[in-house]
Amino acid sequence: MVESPHAAHQAQMPVVTDLYNIDMMLSDEERMVRDTVRKFVRERISPIIGEHFEAGTFPRQLIPELAALGLLGMHLDGYGCAGLSAVCYGLACQELEAGDSGIRSFISVQGSLAMFPIFAFGSEEQKQLWLPRMARGEAIGCFGLTEPDTGSDAAHMRTSARRDGSSYILNGSKMWITNGGIADLAVVWAQAEDGIRGFIVERGTPGFSTSDIHRKLSLRASITSELHFDDCRIPATQMLPGVRGMRGPLSCLDEARYGIAWGSTGAARACYEVALEYAKSRIQFERPIAGFQLVQQKLVGMATELVKAQLLSLQLGRLKDSGHIHPVQISLAKRNNVREALHTAREARSILGANGITLEYPISRHMNNLESVFTYEGTDDIHTLIVGQAITGESAFS
């Protein structure tokens, strides 16, 4: 029998969680960041996160450790930040969300929604005052954009900032604010006389208060709050001088959406891995359920969408690192990856049967969390319309 000329060159079967050998496309530094965060998640987050989810508490004790790993503002340069690449940041988000969306949300809000606007639009004094402390985890930030009556249509926010001599007076409220209850500062967007402006509001400022949102069925291991401003007077020097209008908050949202596109693949991978191992060990009708066609169909669908989402994220990161990224590309990735991660979680839950609804396994926890990820930083519908406008040239927003 003559051996096929291609046989000698055929590679071994790839790892079942990396069917396209994406690992080969990463640099040594990127693999090191991924593996370091994966180890931290395995050792420090996974053993405790189910209890925090059930109790509705955020594991604040992890903040110094996350800071020590350089994960707070890791994609920013200088001011005590790690200055790592966009791909490194994405890989870290992927591994953190494999642990829990709430942990990745904390990192995203701190780095992309609170530190980034100060870095991009703040004065040098504001940067020097806040960014080193935030990178060390000594100061926690939050991002105030969404309001009780304005979500997707943020340009019509009601929170106002009235100039009064050397001060601004803020009135209004913000809703669904991650980290709000523990934040030392809030980056708040408000309507001023000259357009939408960003302000740094410190905890303890008279007229500024927060209240946490309870009875959540999603992101339970994360702090979600309301911010209230009642004649809150702040110095004019706490306004971010480098931006005016919706470009400011939207650029911050793009930073966060980028991390979400990566992070959701981590949640999907975690669900797929658990479902695969369960299917191989669960015996029904005297054989593992992994041998049944319907189960294999579900697993193949999960594996395929995971590969596609990871490749989409990696290319998005390469575009960001090369300076060629466009917001439409971020919307496309966020929309696809979160949508498919949620579908993966639901398929994985069905493979586990009744066991899939317990906290003994992470699947329903991920599934519930992804319902929030599906909505925040731009709903699935909004990202659909963003991409739709880009490909048709027609806006469906107005």
Key terms:
398 residues; alpha+beta; Butyryl-Coa Dehydrogenase, subunit A, domain 1; Butyryl-CoA Dehydrogenase, subunit A, domain 2; Butyryl-CoA Dehydrogenase, subunit A, domain 3; 4-stranded antiparallel β-sheet; 3-stranded mixed β-sheet; 11 strands; globular; fatty-acyl-CoA binding; transit peptide
Description:
This is Glutaryl-CoA dehydrogenase. Keywords: FAD, Flavoprotein, Oxidoreductase, Transit peptide. Belongs to the acyl-CoA dehydrogenase family. Its cofactor is FAD. Residues 142-232 form the Acyl-CoA oxidase/dehydrogenase middle domain. By secondary structure, the protein is α+β, with helices and mostly antiparallel strands. The chain folds into three domains: 22-135, Acyl-CoA dehydrogenase/oxidase, N-terminal domain (Butyryl-Coa Dehydrogenase, subunit A, domain 1, Orthogonal Bundle); 141-238, Butyryl-CoA Dehydrogenase, subunit A, domain 2; 247-392, Butyryl-CoA Dehydrogenase, subunit A, domain 3 (Up-down Bundle). It has ten helices and eleven strands. It has helices spanning 28-55, 63-68, 86-99, 101-121, 124-135, 247-281, 293-321, 327-352, 363-373, 380-392, and strands at residues 77-78, 81-82, 141-144, 160-164, 167-178, 185-192, 195-202, 208-212, 224-235, 283-284, 287-288. A four-stranded antiparallel sheet has the order 4-5-9-8, with helices on one face. Helix 3 (86-99) runs antiparallel to helix 4, helix 3 (86-99) crosses helix 6 and helix 7 (293-321) packs antiparallel against helix 8. The longest helix has 35 residues, at 247-281. It is globular.
